[in-house]
Amino acid sequence: MKSLKVTILVENTVGVALGLLSEWGLSMLLDFGDERILFDTGEQGNLINNAQILGHDLRQIDRVILSHGHYDHTGGLLKFLQYRGRLPVYAHPDLFMRHYRRGLNREGEKYLGVPFLPEQLESAGADFHWYRKPVELRPGLWLSGEIPRETAFEQVDDRLVEIKGGQVVQDVMLDDFSLFYVTDLGLVVLLGCAHSGLVNIVEHAKRVTGEVRVRAILGGTHLGPASSDQQKQTIDYIRGLDLTCLAPNHCTGLGMMSKLAVDFPDSFTYATTGTTLEF
Ligand SMILES: [Fe+2]
Ligand SMILES: [Fe+2]
Question: What pTM was computed for the model?
């Protein structure tokens, strides 16, 4: 299996002093040597500036995978397409669903969905491919497909809602995708926001790939806003995995990030903008 180099192009914070720009969002460059895949695009388009500073040519990206239809993972897509030109973009058919966050302090609901029309992105070069089921995108690399919700303790963030027929209802985030990469030393699990629950995702990864050893977990875990029961049970689960790399970021939040750093000192990496990890 080809080795995989993951570079965090955009994350909420910057960890290296190179003139990189952070924003609330996530974007990772996956470099397999013979192919480069962009996993999410952040919110503002800073991935382009950051890639240049880090020495990566985004015109050489071969395809884009979108983890889900929130603005902080898709907001950089238009600028990226204008820079890169036509290429395949993989996502769930609910990508453009009207994702909202519940109104706070009597404010109205806040739109969190993709900040572009599909036609705008298609005109700028997005060649969309829609998936609901797991698919092997290249040898060893799997797009998760929809994540079965199996654990009792993992709930989609109850602030996330959709508006259906004028009613505000819980958003179940069926479009939440992750990526799984099978290496000789076990699975590398790449998360967008893990809205379907980290444990549900990792268990699904084992079933889909047939590899039960989990080597690394990277990306947004959404543990910050989770209940304390979910946080605790997820930490117990991670303890049983024997990871060599735990690199949470983005919606993990500062409190949970600190706790994971203390609980898993040997495997924890703070995966900020500019971080590169090799598997
Ligand atoms: Fe996010
Ligand atoms: Fe999200």
Answer: 0.97
